[in-house]
Specification:
The protein is mainly β and about 120 residues long. It is about 0% helix and about 50% strand. Strands 2, 4, 5, 6, 9, 10 and 11 form a seven-stranded mixed sheet that branches. It has a four-stranded antiparallel sheet with strand order 1-3-8-7, with no helix packed on it.
């Protein structure tokens, strides 16, 4: 079992930055690839980025490449999402998720999900 809790969301002006954190409980955090997803009002949940269990490989959706950075600290059982040059279209609830796999994983069928944190970017 893995429980996830996101934090760090808020209101920011366009061009600003936020750093999201996702704290995990459970003894086997390092067995899981981690991902960030987001869901804007009236839209489906979409993939943002993922990182392998050891942090060695990452993958991003095209719309955030060069602006967002995912990282993890297995000792702290935490995954981070550094978001720079934020745009109004980045406004959404951001979710972290865990998938028991040794690979990158960008589909929606993750094993565990956090409750989400709201990110609002004003123009």
């Amino acid at each position: 079992q893995v429980q996830l809790v996101e934090s760090g969301g808020g209101l920011v002006q366009a061009g600003g930055s936020l750093r999201l954190s996702c704290a995990a409980s459970g003894r086997t955090f390092s067995n899981y690839a981690m991902g960030w997803f987001r869901q804007a009002p009236g839209k489906e949940r979409e993939f943002v980025t993922t990182i392998t269990w050891n942090g060695g490989t990452t993958y991003y959706t095209d719309s955030v490449k060069g602006r967002f950075t995912i990282s993890r600290d297995n000792a702290k059982k935490t995954v981070y999402l550094e978001m720079n040059s934020l745009k109004p279209e980045d406004t959404a609830v951001y979710y972290c998720a865990a998938k028991r796999t040794s690979s990158l994983y960008y589909l929606l069928d993750y094993d565990y999900w956090g409750p989400g944190t709201q990110v609002t970017v004003s123009s």
